[in-house]
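Supplementary notes for students who missed Thursday's class. We covered one full example, reproduced here. Read the sequence, then the structure, then the short commentary at the end.
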Amino acid sequence: MEDGTTRIDRDAAPLAATMPPETGAPVAGETADQPVIRTERLELRPLRDADAGLLSLYASDRRVAEMTTSIPHPFPPGAAEALIARARAPDRDEDFWAIDGSAAGLSEFLGLISLIRLDESQSEVRFWIGPAFWKSGFASEALKGLVAANPHGSRTLFAAVFQDNPASARVLVNAGFDYLGEAEAWSVARGASVPTWTYIRQMDTEASG
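Structure (token representation):
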């Protein structure tokens, strides 16, 4: 978080076996070239094979899918595994982090947050939380943690939300994003183009890099 509680482990690498939770070390199947970001209650970590079940469960919820551009509804079998494989691809342009609540005694997978690298200095952030954890502050905490860590070293972050999703708009504003304008984006789940609000955040790269 911006108050200094965010901790970033840039040297985390996969191990042959699961380590005790208190070590903070990643487990087999994680992506080696992404930092693990820790906040007061959460750990943002690379996706694991074991995340597929809960990822599929939450992404299958129409309320989640319809607030994203890319999640289809119904969510097809194998889609979670395909996303995890894409998250590990060496030529990927989007880095994904599982929002892990196990440090707070909750599930190891609460939702997903990602950064799409637009160019060397700009990235787009996307996020969603499973409905069981809405109104918990986890989305705000995860986004603030990612912004503070700034793992892409971006000078500018962008984000967009559908206009019928004011809760996510508030999450962005609370993390220091400023309103930029209106646009439209295609929603796969809705099969329609939906009005959006676009937000921007200028980064202090010296403080976060």
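Commentary. The two ends are 15 Å apart (CA to CA). The mean pLDDT is 87. If anything here is unclear, bring it to office hours.
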